[in-house]
């Protein structure tokens, strides 16, 4: 008998087509966020859930899966929306989509970095408002990117891909990552490992690329922001709660840092209201991995994980295969 899979939001069609070749697939065509009760009901009536980062798959949802639910395949590299410990205890596999979005996300971190430094969004708003009355030598002065110091908070796959691009801009690169040892770091990149305080005090651009964990929640708050140079910029494409958004709005309002560019927010889809008004912040709606090719590959990767789990095989990017095997 074919297994039943529920896909909680509309995802790129190739992912759904792949699932449909072998499994009974239902897609939430409303493309809206499901409630906790809806997720519980679906967990209890399906063998697999394909979830998005907007789905909160907590212990109660996993428990509702009972003996039936075998895998939660998240279409994201981040999996802070899923209680991985509870899933492992209950013998439910969890998978994510690492690797396939690295380069696309790094491209976008750079789009934000350059956008805020050279004021592209602000300049477009100015022009469209009919305020461009001719070239002006003092108009829209920004900051250079080339030759500056880039500080990466988190030096995993995406942090390194951002660093790779920085070498083309003749930037000095430094990183803070308590997990990665200097020996493990890519020897081809001339990047310096430093502590967080040094990184914040000496970087012109600070770009955040760390997963969200209890340790990284509000990793950058008021004290850390006050260590940054008054001319520095902060870029975040990781997860919103890594930054204290209210403290950031205070810093931007008081001009204790020069600017910020954010793709992620503490309470998405809400954005701290002051950030909506400030000129020295560039904000985008969590789209760093949003290229057609990458989102498609993320969807097919989630599908491959589900298919393998349904066959009783190791899903290619399962996060807890060994734990589940041990507990099973
Ligand atoms: C992720 O994958 O975790 C991103 O935030 C969305 O692509």
What does this structure look like?
- With 328 residues, the protein is α/β, with parallel strands linked by helices.
- The protein has two domains: 4-98 and 292-327, 3-Layer(aba) Sandwich (Rossmann fold), CATH 3.40.50; 102-283, NAD(P)-binding Rossmann-like Domain (Rossmann fold).
- 36% of the residues lie in helices and 14% in strands.
- The chain has helices at 13-20, 36-45, 59-64, 84-89, 102-117, 120-128, 157-167, 196-202, 222-227, 245-253, 273-277, 292-310, 321-327, and strands spanning 4-7, 24-27, 48-51, 71-74, 93-95, 149-153, 172-176, 191-193, 205-208, 233-236, 259-262, 281-283.
- The strands form two sheets. It has a seven-stranded parallel beta sheet with strand order 8-7-6-9-10-11-12, with helices on both faces.
- β11 (259-262), α11 (273-277) and β12 (281-283) form a beta-alpha-beta unit.
- The protein starts with a strand and ends with a helix.
- The model has no long low-confidence stretch (mean pLDDT 96).
- It binds (2R)-2,3-dihydroxypropanoic acid (DGY).
- The site of (2R)-2,3-dihydroxypropanoic acid has 6 residues, from loops.
């Amino acid at each position: 008998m074919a297994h039943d899979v529920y896909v909680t939001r509309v995802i790129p069609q190739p992912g759904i087509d792949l699932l449909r070749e072998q499994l009974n697939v239902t897609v939430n065509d409303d493309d809206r966020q499901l409630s906790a009760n809806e997720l519980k009901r679906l967990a209890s009536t399906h063998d697999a859930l394909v979830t998005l980062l907007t789905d909160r798959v907590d212990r109660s949802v996993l428990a509702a899966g009972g003996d039936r639910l075998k895998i939660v395949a998240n279409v994201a590299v981040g999996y802070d929306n899923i209680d991985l410990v509870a899933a492992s205890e209950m013998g439910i596999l969890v998978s994510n989509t690492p690797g396939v979005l690295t380069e696309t996300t790094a491209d976008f971190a750079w789009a934000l970095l350059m956008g805020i430094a050279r004021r592209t969004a602000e300049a477009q708003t100015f022009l469209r408002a009919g305020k461009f009355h001719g070239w002006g030598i003092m108009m829209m002065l920004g900051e250079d990117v080339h030759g500056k110091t880039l500080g990466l908070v988190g030096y995993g796959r995406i942090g390194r891909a951002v660093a790779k691009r920085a070498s083309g801009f003749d930037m000095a690169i430094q990183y803070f990552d308590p997990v990665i040892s200097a020996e493990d770091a890519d020897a081809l990149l001339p990047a310096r490992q430093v502590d967080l305080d040094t990184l914040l005090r000496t970087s012109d651009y600070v770009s955040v690329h760390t997963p969200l964990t209890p340790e990284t929640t509000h990793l950058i708050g008021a004290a850390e922001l006050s260590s940054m140079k008054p001319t520095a910029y902060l870029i975040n494409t990781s997860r919103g709660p890594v930054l204290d958004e209210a403290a950031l709005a205070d810093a931007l309002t008081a001009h204790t840092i020069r600017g910020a560019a954010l793709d992620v927010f503490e309470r998405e889809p809400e954005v701290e209201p002051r950030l909506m008004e400030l000129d020295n912040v560039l904000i985008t709606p969590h789209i760093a991995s949003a290229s057609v090719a990458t989102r498609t590959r993320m969807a097919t990767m989630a599908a491959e994980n589900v298919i393998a789990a349904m066959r009783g095989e190791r899903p290619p990017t399962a996060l807890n295969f060994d734990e589940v095997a041990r507990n099973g």
